[in-house]
Amino acid sequence: MTSSSTPNTLPKAPREFGFWLNGQSVDAGTRDLNTRISPGHDVAVTRIPRCTAEDVDAAVASAKAAFDDRRWSGLSGADRAAVLLKTAELIRARMEEIVYWEVVESGKPISQVRGEVGGCIGMFEYASGLARSLHGDSFNNLGDGMFGIVTREPVGVVGLITPWNFPFLILCERVPYILASGCTIVAKPSEFTSSSTLILAEILSEAGLPDGVMNVVTGPGSTVGQALTEHQHVDMLSFTGSTNVGRSVVNAAGKTNFKKLGLELGGKNPQVVFADADLDDAADGVVFGICFNTGQCCVSGSRLIVERSVADKLTALIKEKMAKVRVGDPLDEATQVGAITTDAQKQTILSYIEKGQAEGADLVCGQGALDLGMGSYIGPVVFGNVSADMSIFRDEIFGPVLTISTFDTLEEAIALANDTDYGLAASVWSKNIDTALQATRQIKAGRFWVNTTLSGGPELPLGGFKQSGWGREAGIYGVEEYTQIKSVHVEIGKRNHWVE
Ligand code: NDP
């Protein structure tokens, strides 16, 4: 692992944002302000209001009014598509602005964020087509007296709670699809990384989205997020974050209005490498899969499960590659691994590095916390000889910590891969098509990669098996998730009377 540190340009004063209500930015006024300190540089970068419960009520009322009067759902798919396409164009025009504020708030490397925002443009473009092609079904086989129609209708007001690890990407894996369905939105970004969500709200307005269709409330999850999850007029809630908060969201929905839920929660994702894999490719994929986004990624490949006969060779290749990973200033174009986004997350990761050693795993490489003279950094760590009862194998660490475990047979590999409460993602590396397909069929995960990892696009849906969540985002499935189905029975001709 090498570290880079070049001069960067930081804001001279924190940028002030308001929250977004009914097509307007609302200044903090008398509300508390949250000052975000850049995790990569220890400098104040943004100041954003902490909304109150009344603000959440106002935002939900605005989204409800916009839904009820059909100013958005009543438009044709073609008109909705035009707004989504214009949004894509405006994101492209403001790309560097979005990238910059996201980098300084999150500590993610600038080149990576640029790639993510580029991907988000594709999400809006793809979803614009779905706004036009979303349709129902018909049944012309119910006999001469009956015709059946199945329509899809937007669910209504969607509360959208997003985390700090991919603030813009996770937002854009949802917003265009929600809008394509005809729903309206109250978004609550993580308090650590709210700026790119507020910029998107402004862009949507400029692209012609009617006022009230997109609203953004800012502030802590424990108050603002909780108020949204409990709100009686939120018809559906899309939550991405920890399994613990996911559980409280389910409870809140049960205690209030049984709102529909979409949940994308944690993961402890296997990278299964068979002896016949291209080991050089697999080593690169494994290093990328755990280092990308500093391992703060729900789909990180954090458990390497490798066939015993090639374990030493693969471990040596991984160690060699890890030594070359560039950790450093998120604003440096050459940086591959940036800062740890929150102090709490840093403490969590460091505690697991200690636990791994205490549990008896072999420290293959990595030191843990790095002193770069600024910010909050952890270099990638690899543990070998990890057994399935160790906490570093079982718990989602959400940091650059890789565990290595070995197997001798396909059955053992599949059992180890499935030995987890989660089921978000998995990768398999093998040049034998039978092996790759058997593993793909039998490992329980919502997202699968064969001889690659962490690739994606707007066409393919995201979501988990087991405790990794409910429902799917993105693709046609993502739009359908924000609709509900209505069956319409149409009698043809004279009714056959019940009362003569
Ligand atoms: P949280 O689940 O606490 O945060 C995710 C989102 O939920 C944020 O917007 C947060 O707001 C909000 N939130 C927090 N508490 C509540 C609540 N009671 N009601 C409604 N919304 C709430 O995750 P953390 O940020 O604390 O991360 C902890 C762990 O969660 C990580 O270590 C990782 O394991 C996992 N995680 C998984 C993610 C994924 O993509 N699946 C993403 C992030 C974390 P705010 O941040 O403003 O408090």
Major sheet characteristics: 7 strands, mixed
From the alpha-carbon coordinates, what is the Rg to the nearest angstrom? 24 Å
CATH topology term of the largest domain: Aldehyde Dehydrogenase, Chain A, domain 1
Strand adjacency order, main sheet: 17-20-21-15-14-23-24
**DSSP helical segment count:** 16
**What is the approximate shape?**
globular
Q: Estimate what percentage of residues fall within beta strands.
A: 15-25%
Bound molecules: NADPH dihydro-nicotinamide-adenine-dinucleotide phosphate
Please indicate the count of domains: 2
Helical content class: 25-40%
Query: Got a strand count?
Result: 27
Task: Using the 3D structure, state the CATH architecture of the largest domain.
Answer: 3-Layer(aba) Sandwich
> Structural class, from secondary structure content?
alpha/beta
Extract low-pLDDT stretches: 3-7
| CATH secondary-structure class of the largest domain | Alpha Beta
End-to-end separation in angstroms reads: 86 Å
Average pLDDT number: 97
The CATH superfamily of the largest domain is identified as: Aldehyde Dehydrogenase, Chain A, domain 1
